[in-house]
Task: structure prediction
Amino acid sequence: MLDTTIGAGSAQGATQLGWTGVVRFLHFTPRAFLPMRAAEAIALVAGRGIEGDRYMIGNEEGFYSHKPEEGRQVTLFELETLVALKRDAGIELGPEEHRRNVTVEGVPLNHLVGRRFWLGETLLEATRLSVPCRHIEEITGKAIFDPLINRSGLNCRILQGGIVRVGDTVRNAA
Amino acid sequence: MTARPITTVKTIVTGIEEAGAGTKLFTLADPDQWELPPFKPGAHIDLHLPNGLVRTYSLCNEPADNARYVIAVKREAEGRGGSRALHDDVRVGEVIGVSLPRGGLEAGADIARCVFVAGGIGVTPFLSMALHLARTKQADFKLHLIVREEVPLAAQLGPLIKEGRVVVHRTSRTGRPDLAALVGEGGSATMVACCGPEGMIDDFERVTAAWPAANVHIERFIAAAPVLDPDAQPFTLSLSRTGTEIQVRAGQTMLAALQEGGIDIATSCCGGICGACKVGWLEGKPVHRDRILSPYERERYLMACVAGSDADRLVLDL
Result:
């Protein structure tokens, strides 16, 4: 699926701000350990999280809920990392397996910490980089901890909520 | 902060049915019927029972049936208490935490024929495998079920018995069958597996001793002892601020031992890079396995998720 998705046209329209990306996959799950379910659209609620997701504030049932963090209302992951994982480490990881909510293409996630950007009609603030964790290795049974160091996604706070759809544009708000 | 990480899959008991031979089938599902973590045919899960016991059972539904876990439990009056608790105390609607599924059988692409030998309730993992193979037609298979008289899970096995895929051997009528005759000739395209009482498994091991090891699988009722690093040593953690002493078992992480001892330690990556579980140490000889602390920092701190000890006692600044 990745091979047909990557390069289907998104990051071509670089703006004067340096990048424009696109939403490729959306996923959520209501509780820790359960498989992530793909969606064509998800609802982001400002200051709280994704409707139905395990880390929606006030309804947290995720693996890390014992340390609530309002900067983790929605998480993003680079499609390019999945491609690199297959190419460099021979590990095929599906977009539902990294357990972040939004898989984007053409977005330099590691450079966005502390910045604001538009995800479709929603406005996000990047709070910190995600770190790989043994928990995901346990769930997937794949040795992805080391290959994901420094490219494990981005945690964000939702400043302006709304609906995010597959195919939406991601762009800098600076 | 007293909250703990969620370490089990939350399920509720959605069905309990009699399945013959003192056996009950328990169906576990997500409270909202969400799909459950995937599993291989005949994988195991640990049930964290309401009375605190943790017991391991084979899944007997097939992996494509991904919204439920079905286990078959025979009540063992003289057992260690898990089956009694399930039979006597657990009701529909009860919340039970389960581990992620592990293990299970998977016939590789080169396997054309599978022969399963089960003793009594040992049929459970093979029911899952049989249902999987019957649906996918991945390989031809035959399941030999050896019972004294009554067939457990008769309703579930019925269609497969009619098709001749499951052959029931009743020892009360015909005596014990010759296992060598049941498994037949070995070969790289044949996989054999056995689950049942220890005596049966010992015999099975003997008759398959010359088979390629990768083609022979054995499932025991009692889980095998975990494989430990032969160099791993137990040690004692001494917490300087409270005087508490905590034992770290061989092969156990320091973090797990601290959490088991009721010490609240933040965690995140559990792989020695995020620093969430960084704690100070005062005496001893830590073995640092993290990837972020500088040599200077290692003189004062360690990462509890990956660090070990090269001495019997390690004093932490906790």
In short: Chain A touches chain B at residues 29-35, 37, 61-67, 131-135, 138-139, 145, 149 (CB under 8 Å).
